[in-house]
Design goal:
- The complex is a heterodimer.
- Chain A is an alpha/beta fold.
- Chain A has 4 domains: 231 residues, 3-Layer(aba) Sandwich (Rossmann fold), CATH 3.40.50.970; 120 residues, Rossmann fold, CATH 3.40.50.920; 178 residues, Rossmann fold (3-Layer(aba) Sandwich), CATH 3.40.50.970; 67 residues, 2-Layer Sandwich (Alpha-Beta Plaits).
- In chain A, the strands form 6 sheets. A 7-stranded mixed beta sheet of chain A has the order 3-2-4-5-7-6-12, with helices on both faces.
- In chain A, helix 1 runs parallel beside helix 2.
- The longest helix of chain A is centred in the N-terminal third of the chain and has 18 residues.
- The model of chain A has no long low-confidence stretch (mean pLDDT 95).
- By secondary structure, chain B is of the alpha/beta class.
- Chain B has a single domain, classed as Pyruvate-ferredoxin Oxidoreductase, domain 3.
- Chain B is built from 8 helices and 6 strands, in the order E-H-E-E-E-H-E-H-H-E-H-H-H-H.
- In chain B, strands 2-3-1-4-5-6 form a 6-stranded mixed beta sheet, sandwiched between helices.
- The longest helix of chain B has 17 residues.
- The chains are: A alpha/beta, B alpha/beta.
- At the A-B interface, strand 1, strand 8, helix 11, helix 14 and helix 15 of A face helix 1, strand 2, helix 2, helix 3 and helix 4 of B.
- Strand 8 of chain A pairs antiparallel with strand 2 of chain B.
């Protein structure tokens, strides 16, 4: 069935995921080149575009990393095609170099950078607010506040990019990306223009205007500032600012300024308390460069302003700076005044509490029966902690590696992890890695640990997609500087954590076209690694042996643990009707030592405390059979072979 | 399009139970009915086995998340997750629909923690709920020929209570559009759930 985002049926209303709405916006506004590296909460933008790429005539790709994705988009814009690159907020850290080069340039076609920020870090290692990245790069940042805007603002952002000849950031947040709402489709303006590589920038502009030599850069910088000065006017014409002024005196002299998802919280609070139209409300659809005129015009009507924004108090600080000169008596409230929390994402109740406190209204109390229920629940509930799935090949690889460190290194080692499902190897019961940093950080940091005088084996654990993304330069560095690190590449043949996207080792592109596989082992050898071993992590004996040999080897070594992600395998098995083996515990042989649950920790294995015997949760067992190698008493055996349900 | 009455629902369960799909079907049905909708899913980074919450807001709504103690209904696909969600989101006097089949967390399977007894879960929920409907949704779905469709059964029960501000046919239409396989079995699962909801004691 055709995906909704490709329907040429303007006026239809559909329930769209925020990321799907953004994808639809890209289709409606004739984006011709779209590239990304997957990262939660941004992945579904390009995933959706990839599904309809051929139908709508768009080049869509998963790139090796975010930097390459943004460079691909630059290349598209340079050839006159509207182009976008999308990524999660932390992924955008990778693009700073190309971005800071693109800003003085100017393209004939719109260039859109989509940053999906993750306040509260639901799926991320930090809460960075990429409006500050836009501010650093001095490019406009547009912030949609709901699903209609998520679609519509893509078109505005591209038009703005072309009007002022600057890259534009579309700054999203998790609650836009990963929520759904009704959205009315607009007309699709697909038009395939012949590509035209533009060399105007150097031919006419840099050379023609004589912008060469030491004075060139300040002059280019000044031109960028002239472009930025036009942004607010253009944004106002596009309707990116919406101001509601109260009739008569505002309640409590209060005006509210909000952007992004919190606009919805403010509207709900105002509606439920009957305050709509009694206080002022300004919605900023563009926050960088700070729209000083719009905000000044609004703020001049109020004695007090509450700023409600997701992330850092960016608008609040800008407003404070503006007020200092223009309205020194304006009282400003928000995150800096502690009316809203400085960390974590906002919610309706947090906004409601802030409003209540500013207007002297009663705060909503927790109903007494709910207090009782919460108290009872806190005694009854047990957590469901994060763990790798049943049959996950990463668990088997870590368990084998841990055994190898015991046999050849007295269990003394230092292991640095990386970003992916396999990061969970840090948690109990495996506790394999002692630390984790950024994409590719495992190998890079291990290089430094190995050179710091540590004599224990230094291990880096990295996934397949992450290896292509960021592991390679650090691996070359290990050869270059002879750091004797032991790299475990946990290759589950897919970018699993973000939703099973293909990577350069899969032999298939984003749009399911066959392509050449880039083999990790070939890369390792080309990087000068003399010890490269490939093992199946379900083959426990060979896995232990490979790690033992790698640790004993003098010099950098790589062991590739290759086995498809258990979830992806189950999905394929379900589709193809493949039957899988289910294991069971022989109670005669189980002595209740708990090795399987306490040290290995497969969620498909349970332990009966009364009988003091392990058991297999048959429904969850995927038939990897690693338990047979883990159990010291040979208590696990195949029970039956059946279809996946 | 604006509707004065809003309804807020939280569906809770464990990764793999079809929470997100259920919420999506409900949201799509409401859009078909011409209503304004917000749906939001909250889950951790693990692929399976973690708690999953879906927030559905229908009517004159803007924000995507149901506020604390504001849900008219909590639909729990699993008992402990029903309690977890009711504790945070149920409006006093609201409705809880709970499937009684537990999915044990790793902590319970490995003997480090106890799964709370079902009567204790229900007693706690009843402290704040006005109405509690319990069923083994997987069992009902199995009878309909599709054990995986416990989520669809639960949507049926919710619709059967008459709480939803739109016609049941919109949900069936959404199921037909959004479920790729075994459509008729899913429709049957929905209808089985509907009659349970319809005949459940009020309050």
């Amino acid at each position: 069935m055709q995906h909704v985002v490709a329907r040429d049926s303007p006026g239809e209303r559909h329930l769209l995921l925020g990321n799907e709405a953004v994808a639809r916006g890209a289709i409606e506004s004739n984006v011709e080149v779209a590239a990304a590296y997957p990262g939660t909460p941004s992945s579904e933008i390009v995933e959706t575009l990839a599904q309809v790429a051929d139908e709508v005539g768009m080049h869509v790709q998963w790139s090796t990393n975010e930097m390459v994705a943004f460079e691909v988009a630059i290349g598209g814009a340079l050839c006159g095609k509207r182009s976008l690159a999308s990524m999660k907020h932390i992924g955008a850290n990778w693009i700073m170099d190309p971005l800071m080069h693109a800003i003085y340039h100017g393209f004939d076609a719109g260039l859109l950078l989509i940053s999906a920020d993750d306040p509260s870090g639901h799926s991320s290692a930090n809460e960075q607010d990429n409006r500050y990245m836009a501010q650093l790069a001095e490019i406009p940042a547009i912030e949609p506040s709901d699903f209609q805007e998520a679609k519509d603002f893509v078109g505005h952002a591209l038009a703005l990019s072309e009007e002022v000849r600057l890259p534009v950031m579309l700054r999203l947040v998790t609650r836009i990306c990963h929520s759904r709402g009704d959205c009315t489709l607009g007309p699709m303006r697909r038009e395939r223009k012949p590509p035209r590589f533009s060399d105007d920038y150097y031919r006419d502009f840099v050379l023609g205007e004589g912008i060469v030599g030491p004075k060139a850069i300040p002059k280019l910088h000044r031109i960028q500032h002239e472009k930025l000065a036009k942004v607010e006017g253009a944004a106002a014409r596009m309707g990116l600012f919406r101001s509601e002024l109260p009739e008569g005196d505002p309640a409590g002299g209060l005006g509210i300024i909000a952007s992004s998802a919190p606009v919805g919280y403010v509207l709900d609070c105002l509606n439920s308390r009957g305050l709509r139209g009694r206080v002022g409300f300004l919605r900023l659809g563009l926050s960088v460069p700070f729209p000083e005129k719009t905000v000044s015009d609004f703020a001049s009507s109020f004695e007090r302003v509450l700023v409600v924004e997701e992330g850092e108090p960016y608008i609040e600080r800008q407003l404070a700076g503006l007020a200092k000169g223009s309205f020194p008596r304006l009282e400003i409230y928000g995150k800096l005044s502690s009316h809203l929390p400085r960390e974590g994402e906002l919610s309706l109740s947090l906004v409601d509490d802030a409003l209540a406190s500013l207007l002297g209204l009663e705060r909503r109390a927790v109903p007494p029966e709910k207090l009782k229920l919460m108290e009872l629940s806190s005694r009854l509930l047990t957590p469901r902690t994060l763990t790798m799935c049943a049959g996950c090949p990463h668990r088997a690889a870590y368990y084998a590696a841990k055994k190898a460190t015991r046999t050849v290194a007295n269990a003394k080692y230092i292991a640095i992890g990386d970003i992916g499902c396999y990061t969970l190897g840090m948690y109990p019961p495996l506790r394999f890695m002692q630390d984790v940093f950024c994409m590719g950080g495992s190998i890079g940091v291990a290089n430094g640990v190995a050179k710091s005088g540590i004599t224990d084996p230094v291990i880096a654990t990295i996934g397949d997609s992450t290896f292509y993304h960021a592991g390679i330069p650090a691996l070359i560095n290990a050869t270059f500087n002879q750091a004797s690190i032991k790299v475990m590449v946990l290759d589950n043949e897919v970018t699993a954590m973000t939703g099973y996207q293909p990577h350069p080792g899969c032999g298939e592109t984003a749009t399911k076209k066959p392509t050449k596989k880039v083999a990790i082992e070939d890369i390792c050898r080309a990087c000068g690694i003399e010890f490269v071993r490939i093992v199946d992590p379900y083959d426990f004996g060979s896995s232990v042996k490979a790690m033992e040999d790698a640790i004993r080897f003098e010099g950098p070594a790589v062991v590739i643990f290759r086995r498809i992600c258990a979830q992806e395998y189950l999905r394929r098995a379900r589709r193809q009707g493949i039957r899988i083996e289910k294991y069971r515990v022989d109670p005669q042989k189980c002595i209740g030592c708990r090795t399987c649950v306490a040290a290995f920790g497969c969620p498909a294995i349970g332990f009966d405390r009364e009988k003091k015997k392990a058991f297999v949760v048959t429904l969850d067992c995927v038939g990897c059979g690693v338990c047979t190698a883990v159990c010291p008493n040979g208590a696990f055996a195949i029970d039956e072979v059946r279809e996946v349900c | 399009m604006a509707l004065n009455k809003t309804i807020e629902i939280v569906i809770s369960g464990v990764g793999g139970q079809g929470n997100v799909k259920g919420a999506q079907i409900l949201g799509a049905a409401a859009v078909k009915a011409g209503l304004h909708v917000r749906v939001s899913d909250v889950f951790g980074i693990a692929q399976r086995g973690g708690p999953v919450l879906s927030h559905i807001r229908i009517g004159d709504v803007n924000g995507t998340m149901v506020d604390m103690h504001s849900a008219d209904a909590v639909v729990g696909l699993e008992p402990m997750e029903a309690l977890r969600a009711a504790s945070s989101f149920l409006k006093p006097g609201g409705t809880v629909i709970m499937s009684t089949r537990p999915i044990y967390p790793v902590e319970v399977n490995t003997g480090k923690a106890d799964y709370p007894p079902l009567p204790a879960i229900l007693d706690a929920i009843r402290v704040a709920a006005g109405r509690v409907i319990t069923l083994d949704a997987t069992e009902v779905a199995s009878c309909a020929g599709i054990p995986m469709a416990a989520n669809v059964v639960m949507l049926g029960v919710l619709a059967g209570t008459g709480m939803l501000p739109f016609a049941t046919d919109y949900i069936k239409a959404a199921i037909r559009e959004m479920i790729p396989r075994s459509v008729e079995e899913n429709i049957r699962a929905f209808e089985e759930g509907f009659s349970i909801g319809e005949s459940a004691p009020k309050g």
